[in-house]
Amino acid sequence: MVPPVSRPASRIEALRLIAQEFAQDPVVLTCGATCREMAAAERRPNHLYVVDSMGLVSSIVLGLSLGLETGQARPRRVVGVEGDGGMLMNLNALATIGYLQPTNLLLIVLDNQAYASTGGQTTFTEKLDLAAIAASCGLRTWQPEDLEGLKQAITEAAQVPGPGFIHLRIAPGNAPAPLLLEDPVTLGHTFTTWLASQGHG
Amino acid sequence: MGYREDACAAVIRGLEAAGIQYFIHVPDSFGAPVIAHFEGQPGVRAFPVAREEEGVGIASGLAMTGKKSVLFCQDVGLGNSMVALTTFAMAYHMPLLVLAIRRGGFGEFNAAVHTFSEGAPDMVDSMRLKAFNLDYRVPLDAWPRAIQQAQEYAQMTHRPIIVFLNLKE
């Protein structure tokens, strides 16, 4: 019998799973199609939609994670969702995260090997292994191949303290989603109001 | 002590009065005494970042959790952080304090750096970023209160505030 071949997830499938798995945790989303698809599919107040500032999500998440560290053995996760293009734009952040070793940070990179929001130009990840770079910086890494693997990686990452990095190859292409045209102040206020309701900020 | 040491001591007093909890820095020789002070200060978490825009992102994340931080860098580093400052910190109303050490003006020895430094205040102004200046024209005993007020102003006006520091006499 031929074993089933795993299919790369689409971005929106991965985002739906992330929203469901982190329904009570802060989730910061990178600009472009990632923000738009998440807002269209799973709009939630625990999501911070970063509508520009490409590459900054990993640094914003680091600041959030430092501010929310509790010293507990299994703290709340602070999640950043980045693309391969955004991650490549701020690889420094991996070095800083590795140096500081926040206990509660999880970066999930959805890698379609392209700048999909700007026309599909190729990124370096065709030849570079982002997970190997993250591992060399001191992050624990997972490289699932499909949605089931992503769910398993999220479960495992929640069990171990320290910064985690999940690298998921996704299929090319964007799902139809409207532009996210709200004032960033409103987007930020929704998120910080939710954070405050959780006892932070 | 010389002027630089006195100026650094004034900066330290200002940041302590402001209740800074996180000291985020990029290396600078003039400001090295300030970095050394906070690196050894219990109760303040001090750490370097590789580039200034990282510091803007980290300080913004901290601000969303109600924590007070400062980004301590050179004014030439503001060039690295303009996109992060405008498209995130300003756009999302993040209260940040940035102390930017002048690498131009009287006392500067580096023949390559002054061009950017001298234009940095105009660059910041053109981006509608609010900035204040502390240099030899302001008595050092006024610096701590000015730094404290800059931090309070950032909180009350919900935006990044930059303070240019010339630590050279």
Describe the structure.
The complex is a heterodimer of chains A (201) and B (169). Chain A has helices at 11-21, 33-42, 57-68, 84-89, 92-100, 130-136, 147-159, 184-197, and strands at residues 27-29, 47-49, 78-83, 105-111, 114-115, 121-122, 140-142, 164-169. Chain A is of the alpha/beta class and 201 residues long. A six-stranded parallel sheet of chain A has the order 2-1-3-4-8-7, sandwiched between helices. Chain A has a two-stranded antiparallel ribbon with strand order 5-6. In chain A, helix 1 crosses helix 2 and helix 1 runs parallel beside helix 7 (147-159). Chain A starts with 10 loop residues before the first helix and ends with a helix. In chain B, 46% of the residues lie in helices and 17% in strands. Chain B contains six helices and six strands. A six-stranded parallel sheet of chain B has the order 2-1-3-4-6-5, sandwiched between helices. Chain B is globular. The mean pLDDT of chain B is 96. Chains A and B meet through helix 3, helix 5 and helix 8 of A and strand 2, helix 3 and helix 4 of B.
